[in-house]
Amino acid sequence: MKSRQSIVEQVQEYLKFKRSCGYQLEAPGKELMLFARYAEQTGHKGPLATELAVRWAKLPKDANPRYWATRYDIVRRFAEYRFLFDPATEIPPKDLLGPSKQRLSPHIYSDEEIAALLQAASQLTPTDGLHPRTYVTLFGLLVSTGLRISEALNLSRKDADLNTGVLTIKETKFRKSRLVPVHASTLYVLRHYSKLRDSCHPGTRSKTFFLAEKGTSLNYRGVLYVFLKLRRKLGWQEADKKPRIHDFRHTFAVRRLLKWYKEGDNLDQKILALCTYLGHVQVTDTYWYLSAVPELLAIVSDKFENFSIKERRRDTP
Fold it and tell me: Residue 125 domain-assigned?
């Protein structure tokens, strides 16, 4: 007779399964292992229980309640998986400790803001070096493609096909790869930057497409430092919704959706293509852009109102 798995073994099995599906679960995986070891150290026996999840989630007494909710939600998802194998497992109620995630309202860049940012980036020192050209090209690529900043920084030279204008984005957020075609104007800028980069650092060992002034690969912390410096210079630091690097991605998606709507395209069909282009795992993540911006929310409201009018007319004798 097969012996019952320990809770540590159950968690290890769960993480192996989820990662095989493309989920990295680095931080959540560490938290879940901490939970499993806590359960075993406290002598917990039998199926997972809500009381145990709550007790462990609130162990850091002085932590932010949202951190408690995050830890609780990690265990809740594990319980949903375990229920498939052991119906005696208690699935903790959703949001018992409050919401674990809060999506920040995005800032949608205007044409004027994008132009101002690129102009400010072009004035970075040394003005005659690679540094300003790198940031103008990097920020321009994010705006024109909606790439995640991590995807742009990890982009290798061999994965940027400057003949066809197709970028191969490998091992992204969910360990999936995809092809991202770029506009002709974007391709022109990428080609120009590539020639300048190679002339500045012909012997660099770095394989990434974007290079720092010294010929090394860019890292997120350095890029964030430069962006925040430019944000302060432009006076955006005092805004109610301070623009973020990730908002380039929101801006791309929103502009694309608005363009399709104004051209009379079927948004339900087009959004599937956008989901693939952006590398979203779930189409609901792409649909979120419809409700995140007032302009798009108004579009949804207008579509529903027109639908209601047609229904009323149909019912009228």
Answer: yes
